[in-house]
Amino acid sequence: MASPRLRRVIFWTGLPVLAVVVLVAVWSWSWFIPLIERQASAALGRPVSIGDLDVDLGRVSEVVVGDLRIDNPEGYPTDPPFATVPRLALRIDVWEYIRSRRIVIPDITVDRPAVSLLARAEGDNNYTFGNGQTDIDNQTPEESAPPVIPEIGALRVREGRVHAKLDPLRSDMELKIETREPEGQPSSLHVTADGRYAGQPITGELVGGAVLSLRDENSPWPIRLNLANGPTKVALEGTVRDPLRFGGANIRLDFSGPDAALLTPLTGVPIPATPAYRLAGKLDYGEGAFRFSDIDGKLGNTDIAGSIAVAPKSPRPEVTAALRSRRVDLTDLAGFIGGTPEGKAKPAQNRGRVLPDTKISVPRLRFADVHLTYDAGQIRGQVMPLDDMHVKLDIVDGAVALKPMRFGVGKGRIDGNFDLAPDGETLSLNGRVEFQRVDLSRLMGVTPMGEGQGAIGGRANIQTRGRSVAEMLANGNGALTLGMAGGDLSALLVDLSGLQIGNAVLSALGLPSRTRVQCFVADMGLRRGVVQTKTLLIDTDDSLISGSGEVDLKAEKLDYALRTEAKNFTVGSLPTDILLRGTFSNPAVRPEMVELGARAGAAVGLGIIALPLAILPTIQFGIGEDHRCEGLVKRAR
């Protein structure tokens, strides 16, 4: 019979063993499900439920989760939920975490996951988790340290589906996701898309190459994408060394389509209307920005090269671009300066109006912060007196600074500096243009009838506000001062003024097709949309021509008169006013019919002979001393 001492030893030894046996017999990992659900729900900001949980402990432990469900946030339908996963299995290298605190997951298997992405027109969505503060770009370097990302070996997805209904993007499409593991070949990730995006049909296929080690930098991850969104085509092919961060990318990207404006919903960058285009280059990611570099493309008849970087910052993405063209056709860039590219349908305007009255979208200007420099080595066109171009554009929170917008003309240049600031639905504009010895022979060289020598100098300024180009001109205040020595009158009137009535004016004035200009001076004022003439004088070999009147930019009406005075007496030659009247869309040119005696009397006291002294600095500005203007200078004195 066992002694009391032995019985006590058996009791205290057997009790723990029995407890362990009983615990093992009834143990269930499901006991941890409520705890995991509570923590996951708090982290994601919406209910999370788990149907089953099993863990196989070991140096590399396996965790299997069954019937995982992540609900939509409050205010969204209960069904379908944000995501369901009938079975999720992952293996975790426990020993590696204990030794180095690295999270190493040799493989993940996701069976038949279903995800429903919803975004409403009001701006909210069901895929922003937690408190929604996902942007770290405005934090300090210490605060924005990257989170620990698990090192994933293999990812397997079987029969995955994503439904994306994104009202702000006018999108409703289905994505199918799966990995394929053909016998004897590496696995690959396949994603197909079908539906509508940005109101256009979309189809696409992405092949992600071997998904054996997403973080093995010695084995770049191949990727290939072909996408068609309406008429826009996108092709992408290359490798990525760090797919989870899109780092170390060596990718060739090609865009093509009939209008680059259709790229706005795909790229997140506001792009004006353009002619047909093709752009190709290298895509990479680094320093918080996607970079599209080594660009080689065509925009209509214009070649495009350079680089574009897009940083997805908050509250707006930041776009930095340095672009250049060897040869540019300005009609291809009309959309960037508020016009309509050739071949595109022009927006409807008020009947009988000429000035564009399409409203400028202030919210679109706030779509992104843009910093652009653009250089064109040669400007081409049917009638184009400009040689080259340099533009520096900055848009920050909707405020536009165009400083400078420079054009070369022969040995001279035209410099413009403009500031536009949003104010509600309108824009305030403050602009200044300087004409620096603009080569007249370069201007005349593009005309079929013009010859001339000399230089045009002067300046212009405008201050205004409005919602369209027409409204800004109608509200504008400013001035224009020009001076020129030498030239050809016919070419000047027909080509520089841009009026189709130029030939009619010359005929009415009784001038030959080519009349040499000794000197030209213009001093105009702009007040509340009305251009008023202070001085307009043209000194030719045979005549003096003066102009008076006004041009109403708001009503788009002309009320102007030109008078010619012969320098030498000619029998039957009397001064006659030529009237320019009517609207911009329907102008009329005719001589003013008055009694002969009244005209003769008017000729005696010509105001044109006694020019105001203020004209002297005007004709000297921008053109220097030139003997061809000495006649007008003497009259001024």
From TrEMBL:
The keyword Transmembrane applies. It comes from the Bacteria. The chain crosses the membrane at residues 9-32. Pfam families: AsmA. Keywords: Membrane, Transmembrane, Transmembrane helix. Residues 194-534 form the AsmA domain. This is AsmA family protein.
